[in-house]
C-alpha cells in the first residue's frame, strides 16, 4: 500500500510537484464568463490583463464534493492511502468540500487544513513527502503535520494594495495612502486567517531587506531544511535582493524561488513577495 500526497493547486510548488511525486487538484478562476483551471490553462498575466481591462478581480472557486470524489477515487481504487492538503479553511471552502468527499472512502483519505496558503501550504506538503519517503505511515504523517502547521511562517509584503482593496481586504483610504506614501503592510497568517502586521515605508528593495531581518528576529530558531521566496511576478531584481538577503541572514539548506499561481495572484496582485519557512518554538 502506497501513500499518495495530494494538494489543491494553491500550494505554489512549481517544478517540485513532479519531482516529489505530488498530485494537484486545480482550483478554478473565472474571468468574466470564461472558466479556467489554476496551473493548467491560465497564467498570472491573464489575470493582470483582465483586472486592468475590467477593474474587478477574477472570481475564484473551490472544487465541488463531486470533484474531490472523482479526484480521490483512482488512488483509493489502486490501493493507496491519500493525504490531501487544502488552503486554509478560513480562506476557502475547499477544505470543507474535501472533508465531505473523504467520507466516501472509508478512512483511506486523510484531509489536512494547512491553515496557510501558497508555499506556506507547500512547506507542509513537502514535509509530508519527506516523511512518506522516509517510510512513515499515513497516520504518523497526519499527526506530525497537524502539530507542525501552527509553526509555519506564512507572510508576504504587497507592492501595491489595489487588489487587496478590490477584494475588500483594505479601505480605499488605506489603498490611496499606501500608494502615495509608499507604505507596504506586512500581511501574515494567524490561526489560518490573513491579518495585517507591521507597516513598512519606502522602496520595496529596502523594505524586503528589513522584512527579512525582522523575520530572523521574530524566529531565531527555525527548521533549516528549506525556505521559499515566493512572489507574484515580482521584478527579477527584487527577487534577487530577497534571495540574497535570506541566504545572508539565515542558514537554510536550500532557498527556493517559486511564483504564485493564479489563485493567490488573483487576490494579492503583481509584485507581492513573501519569505516562508517553518520555525521552532
Topology of helices and strands:
Elements: E1 3-8, H1 16-19, E2 22-25, E3 28-31, E4 34-37, H2 44-54, E5 59-61, H3 65-77, E6 81-86, H4 94-102, E7 109-113, H5 118-133, H6 138-148, E8 152-153, E9 155-156, H7 162-166, H8 172-181, E10 183-190, E11 193-201, H9 204-218, E12 227-231, H10 236-249, E13 255-259, H11 262-268, E14 273-278
Parallel strand pairs: 1-2, 1-6, 6-7, 12-13
Antiparallel strand pairs: 3-4, 3-5, 8-14, 9-10, 10-11, 12-14
Helix pairs in contact: 3-4, 5-6, 9-10
Residue share in helix: 40-55%
Main β-sheet description? 4 strands, parallel
Mean pLDDT: 91
Class from helix and strand fractions: alpha/beta
**Corresponding CATH architecture of the largest domain:** 2-Layer Sandwich
- Helix-strand string: EHEEEHEHEHEHHEEHHEEHEHEHE
* Low-pLDDT residue spans: none
Q: How far is the first residue's CA from the last residue's CA?
A: 35 Å
Shape: globular
Tally of separate helices = 11
Radius of gyration: 18 Å
**Domain module tally:** 2
Biggest sheet: strand arrangement: 2-1-6-7
Feature tags:
281 residues, alpha/beta, Rossmann fold, Hypothetical Protein Tm841, Chain: A,domain 3, 2 domains, four-stranded parallel β-sheet, four-stranded mixed β-sheet, 25% strand
Describe what you observe in this structure.
By secondary structure, this protein is an alpha/beta fold. It folds into 2 domains: 113 residues, 3-Layer(aba) Sandwich (Rossmann fold); 125 residues, Hypothetical Protein Tm841, Chain: A,domain 3, CATH 3.30.1180.10. 41% of the residues lie in helices and 25% in strands. The chain is built from 11 helices and 14 strands. The strands form 4 sheets. A 4-stranded parallel beta sheet has the order 2-1-6-7, sandwiched between helices. A hairpin with a 2-residue loop joins β10 and β11. α3 packs across α4 and α5 runs antiparallel to α6. The model has no long low-confidence stretch (mean pLDDT 91).
